[in-house]
Amino acid sequence: MIISAMPGPFGAIVEGIDLSVPQSDDILRGLIAALHEHQILAIRGQRLTDADYVAFGHQWGRPLMFHLQSHRKDEFPEMIRITNAAATPERYRDGAKFWHQDSSYEAVPASVTMLYGAETPDEGGETLIASTALAYDALDDAMKAKIDGLVGLHCLGGSPALPGEKIPFIPENTARHGIVSHPLVMRHPVTGRKALYLSGSAFGAEGLEIDEGRALINALRTHCTQPQFVTRYKVETGDIFLWDNFQVLHSATPIEYSDEPGKRRLLFRISTKGVPALCDTADLAA
Ligand SMILES: [Fe+2]
Questions:
Q1: Tell me, what CATH number does 261's domain have?
Q2: What distance in angstroms lies between residue 60's CA and the mean position of ligand 1's atoms?
Q3: Is 56 contained in some domain?
Q4: CA–CA gap between residue 234 and residue 228 (Å, rounded)
Q5: Is residue 23 in some structural domain?
Q6: Would the pLDDT of 223 be above 70?
């Protein structure tokens, strides 16, 4: 297994491993540690059955069942289908074209998300990833002192939109999920490293007036998504691309919806909650 730096400010590429055959706990621990260190990983050159991929997904935690049943794969409901098929209804198009951390509108959000590339268009379809850990580190001491200890308030689609964002807002869904709270500065559950936790769902913070909270969230999301904190990656066929939701925001770039050869994209997402069974949780009291 060879791990090398990905072009951009952070991230790593993994080659020389075949996940269609069982791997030792030491190799899996190495992959998990690499994700926690580099925040995103692209494991290249895989040819996996659905069962292989789901078994690999379970190594990272408890796979979540996506809230839209129509996007799940029948036999393996852990797998969420992402496609640019021409028949995709308008309301589902470009649904991830805003900066977010997955399922942050739930009380227990996703820790890790992975995409498996089954089909890739010749052009376009990149994913943008912003490091909220590097962005936190770059804040001045006054801002760190202000936000350390604040509790962020989240609801589905609740964040003020940055320029160019399309934040899906469906009142019935938002109402169903309600309001949840998460630390604004999240300690990583395994490494303890601090990172901003904002997603596209944070709309304020406990103890702040509504306008002040919204302005703070807007400023922090603007800060995190500056180019020096952003890596751009296109998932190729045979890639497993993973990100650590406690250290990064992600955003999809627009894609053409088409069934033409060379334009089709088919990805399978798995998101997990909790800590990998092979890891101990951080001593966050330290
Ligand atoms: Fe997402």
A1: 3.60.130.10
A2: 17
A3: yes
A4: 18
A5: yes
A6: yes
